[in-house]
Design a protein that fits this description.
The complex is a heterodimer of chains A (660) and B (196). With 660 residues, chain A is α+β, with helices and mostly antiparallel strands. Chain A has 4 domains: 4-249, PAS domain (Beta-Lactamase, 2-Layer Sandwich); 307-410, PAS domain (Beta-Lactamase); 416-503, Helix Hairpins (Orthogonal Bundle); 509-657, Histidine kinase-like ATPase, C-terminal domain (Heat Shock Protein 90), CATH 3.30.565. Helices cover 48% and strands 22% of the residues of chain A. Chain A is built from 14 helices and 22 strands. In chain A, the strands form 5 sheets. In chain A, strands 1, 2, 3, 4, 5 and 6 form a 6-stranded antiparallel sheet that branches. In chain A, strands 12-11-15-14-13 form a 5-stranded antiparallel sheet. With 196 residues, chain B is an alpha/beta fold. Chain B folds into 2 domains: 2-131, Rossmann fold, CATH 3.40.50; 141-194, Arc Repressor Mutant, subunit A. In chain B, 57% of the residues lie in helices and 11% in strands. Chain B contains 9 helices and 5 strands. Chain B has helices at 9-21, 32-40, 63-72, 90-98, 111-140, 143-153, 158-165, 169-183, 188-194; strands at 2-5, 26-29, 51-55, 81-85, 103-106. Classes of the chains: A alpha+beta (660), B alpha/beta (196). Chain A binds chain B through residues 445-446, 449-458, 460-462, 464-465, 468, 479, 482, 486, and chain B through 8, 10-11, 13-15, 17-18, 20-22, 86-87, 107-109, 111-112.
Chain lengths: 660, 196
């Protein structure tokens, strides 16, 4: 399954990315095209503007020229009809010239090309006749049209205006069929440009008057030369004169990024792309981290679930926040029944309540046992389980403690094994001790067996012989003496055993009873652990020491405690109290040790036989216990007695003389 | 003959004294090995019966081991064994009983009762011995003699036997005499008796 899913996932991934990539590429393309387009548009706009403006200027020039022409014709008509005097004409010339500074000069020539009058000041000195033909040679009719002549250099002008061109136009004076003369109007080429082109146009453009061959007659570039980017030509409609108005904008090509808006957009777009890329990288990284985290979580969950050790987390108030499956199966409660609960917990065993409460108080105060500790829990079905618990503080990533983490190990099996081995050890220990007693006993038995058997055989034989009536004196004597010898031998055996016992006599040394009992406590606790016995040890301070074999006293004590524990097997768990008490009996100068239980007690009938050897109420008992105990105590000069516990049970009491 | 095997000389002595007081002949051995050595040299089995009193606990060859050896040699019927056990050896002894020992007595025991039992064992031994002897004697019979024997045991008269076997009566009588001789009996009744 997995193998097939992979490529699909991959292609899906790819598809998810194709659309954004497409969009981005489109965006980038637009981004590149936009400025180019803007630039082109601007160029077009400028060109069109120039064209429009040029048209306007052309019209303005044309208009003026036509108007001038009109005025002159009027003057001409006036000359012909009203017969104006030359002075009046000159005046009229001056008036016209004064209001139109593009006119260089005005002159009236008669039929014979003689100057009649002209405008004053700058102008032809009067005598000059513009070298302009006035008639088409060979034409039959007079040309009444105005005619303009190609611009010529005016060398009459002052030096400063050298190389300036002038344009002459003539208006023929025709009356009827008579040609009476002509009026010549002389334009300064540059004057046209200066006067007739509006300043706002001249501001942005270089204007030139050129002929068809691009020979420049005049140029005006008040705001700098044109950049030859945007140019336009318009042919002026001067009769017989093809004059071109050439306009050259002084605006350069629109810069690509001159458009501030566009550049800002580009910068922002680049920023956008970069942040998109960063975002993509970030998303990838995050996905990878998520994947790794998920793996970790799965792994850890698997670990927690597969553990045999129970895990338990509690918050600072001791409320259960988490348990793993192993813990739940250990205590027999499902997780939802115990999570969120505060003590007392359903898995607490009643007999250990005090212990739990103490530990919980410590926990709330902020302390837990540094090492693992043992306690018991109760399974949902009532069985008790021994557990080993390790506690530690839960610290979050900021270093603050958020609760407690415990690991719980079920050591019931371990405890059982320990208990078993302890029992065996105790048996061994006891039997080792008993062995010395038994050693002696069996030794005695074995050794005495022989002479006794012999005595028996000899005497039976002797009796047989006597009964058979063939008793030979010597034979009988022989037998009897052998009997005697064997009896002696028996006596010797007993004597040697005595010696043996003396040699193995217990050492007598100074023993502090309280210390001895304290040292034996671990063994007693071990004895009582399996049955959940509550042990109470009540020593007395400054008890005098006794002269005793501490091993023997220990054995007596363990014997008594074992009996006490066994007596309490049927007692309810909360009441299984074993009390060991050591006090001083001042009157008799002896140390008193009492072992009290809350067991079944000892009925009268049994009480009599209690200390008999070989008496036991236990199925597996040999009945050596109490008897030996008594002997051991009496050996030390003490006494072992028992009495009933008024609260139910038995008190075993032994006293030992104090040693000073 | 009572064979007393015990490592304690006092016991050996007192027991043999006891046996003698009951008119039972006794021989003593201080160890199982010693007894075996005597066995190897052809032991003269007492025709009136033999019995072994065996102490279980002995150094070196234990009583049980000796018994096992005797058992292997199939001598336990001819030499019935009575074990003398101490405390704690009873299970062992019971086990040996199952394997064919005659009896066991736990120490300390009643001496006369022990002797009574010894006598019973001697009877058994005697009978076993007898049976063995009879067996040997039987083996010495020829085939024809065996046939004749079978018919005699069936109570057939000589004449009938002769007819049956297709031999003369005389031959039958001769066979009969030989059989009685070999079997060491005097009458057919006796013969029947030992062959029971």
């Amino acid at each position: 399954m997995k193998i097939f899913e992979k490529p699909r996932a991959w292609s899906k991934e790819k598809w998810r990315w194709i659309i954004p990539i497409l969009l981005i590429s489109l965006f980038l393309a637009t981004l590149i095209w936009l400025p180019l387009q803007a630039q082109r548009m601007e160029a077009n706009e400028r060109q069109e503007q120039l064209i429009a403006d040029t048209l306007w200027v052309e019209h303005a020039i044309q208009f003026q020229i036509d108007r001038n022409d009109e005025m002159l014709r009027q003057i001409g008509a006036d000359i012909l009809v009203m017969g104006l005097k030359p002075a009046e004409v000159a005046e009229r010339f001056d008036r016209l010239r004064n209001s139109n500074h593009e006119i260089s000069s005005l002159a009236w020539f008669n039929h014979d090309n003689v100057l009649v009058t002209a405008s004053t000041d700058e102008g032809p000195s009067g005598k000059q006749v513009p070298d302009v033909p006035y008639q088409e040679s060979g034409a039959l009719e007079f040309d009444i049209r105005t005619r303009c002549f190609p611009p010529t250099l005016d060398d009459q002008l002052p030096k400063s205006e050298k190389n300036s061109y002038v344009i002459n136009c003539q208006i023929p004076l025709i009356k009827g069929t008579k040609h009476l003369g002509r009026i010549i109007i002389t334009y300064r080429a540059s004057g046209i440009l200066e006067e007739l082109v509006p300043w706002w146009f001249a501001q942005d453009n270089q204007i030139s008057l050129v002929d068809i061959d691009d020979k420049v007659y005049a140029t005006r570039a008040s705001a700098g030369l044109g950049k030859n980017v945007y140019t336009h030509n318009r042919t002026l409609d001067l009769p017989d004169l093809p004059l071109v108005l050439h306009t050259n904008s002084n605006k350069s090509e629109p810069k690509l990024l001159a458009n501030l808006l566009v550049s800002v957009v580009i910068v922002l777009s680049l920023g956008l792309i970069w942040s998109l890329a960063a975002l993509w990288r970030d998303i990838n990284r995050r996905l990878a981290t998520e994947g790794a985290l998920r793996q970790q979580v799965i792994f850890r969950t698997a670990m927690e679930n597969s553990l045999v050790t129970g895990l338990r987390a509690r918050d600072m108030q001791g409320r259960l926040t988490y348990v793993n499956p192993a813990f739940c199966s250990m205590v027999g409660f499902p997780a939802d029944q115990i999570i969120g609960r505060l003590p007392p917990m359903p898995y607490w065993a009643p007999e250990a309540f005090a212990e739990y409460k103490q530990r919980f108080t410590d926990l709330l105060a902020g302390t837990v046992p540094a090492n693992g500790f043992e306690t018991i829990y109760q399974h949902a079905n009532g069985t008790k389980i021994s557990v080993l618990i390790y506690e530690s503080a839960l610290i979050d990533e900021t270093g603050i403690q958020t609760g407690w983490m415990s690991s719980i190990l079920d050591i019931s099996e371990l405890k059982r094994a320990q208990e078993l081995s302890r029992q065996q050890e105790e048996k061994l220990h006891a039997s080792a001790r008993l062995a010395t007693m038994g050693e002696i006993a069996s030794m005695l038995a074995h050794e005495l067996n022989q002479p006794l058997a012999a005595i028996s055989s000899y005497t039976t034989g002797a009796m047989n012989i006597v009964e058979a009536d063939n008793a030979e004196k010597n034979l009988l004597l022989g037998a009897l003496s052998k009997v005697n010898a064997q009896a002696q031998r028996a006596g010797q055996i007993i004597r040697s055993v005595h010696e043996f016992v003396k040699k193995r006599e217990a050492k007598r040394e100074q023993v502090d009873i309280c210390e001895l009992i304290q040292n034996t406590m671990p063994l007693i606790e071990l004895q009582g652990q399996a049955s959940h016995i509550h042990i109470q040890w009540l020593p007395t301070k400054n008890l005098p020491s006794v002269l005793a074999d501490h091993v023997l006293i220990e054995q007596v004590l363990l014997n008594l405690t074992r009996n006490a524990i066994e007596a309490m097997q049927d007692t309810p768990v909360g009441h299984r109290n074993l009390r060991i008490q050591a006090t001083m009996d001042v009157d008799n100068d002896q140390v008193v040790v009492e072992v009290t239980d809350r067991g079944t007690g000892i009925p009268e009938a049994i009480a009599e036989q209690l200390f008999s050897p070989f008496f036991s109420t236990k199925a597996s008992g040999m009945g050596m216990g109490l008897n030996i105990c008594r002997t051991a105590i009496e050996f030390h000069g003490g006494k072992l007695t028992h009495s009933n516990n008024p609260a139910g049970g038995t008190i075993f009491r032994f006293v030992l003389p104090a040693f000073h | 003959m009572l064979h007393i095997i015990d490592d304690e000389d006092v016991i050996r002595d007192s027991l043999s004294w006891l046996a003698r007081s009951r008119q039972i002949a006794a021989m003593t051995y201080s160890s199982g090995e010693q007894f075996l050595a005597a066995l190897d040299q052809p032991l003269r089995f007492d025709p009136s019966g033999d019995c072994i009193l065996l102490d279980v606990r002995m150094p070196q060859l234990s009583g049980i081991s000796l018994f096992d050896l005797l058992s292997e040699k199939k001598l336990t019927k001819r030499l019935p064994v009575i074990f003398l056990t101490g405390h704690g050896d009873v299970p062992m002894a019971v086990d040996s009983l199952k394997r064919g020992a005659f009896d066991f007595f736990e120490k300390p025991f009643n001496d006369n009762k022990l002797m009574d039992r010894v006598q019973e064992a001697l009877v058994l031994s005697r009978e076993a011995g007898l049976a063995a002897a009879v067996h040997d004697r039987l083996a010495s019979l020829s085939a024809r003699e065996k046939e004749v024997l079978d018919l005699i045991l069936q109570g057939k008269m000589n004449k009938v036997i002769a007819d049956h076997l297709g031999i003369s009566m005389r031959t039958v009588e001769v066979h009969r005499a030989h059989i009685f001789d070999k079997m060491q009996v005097k009458t057919a009744v006796e013969l029947a008796g030992i062959l029971k």
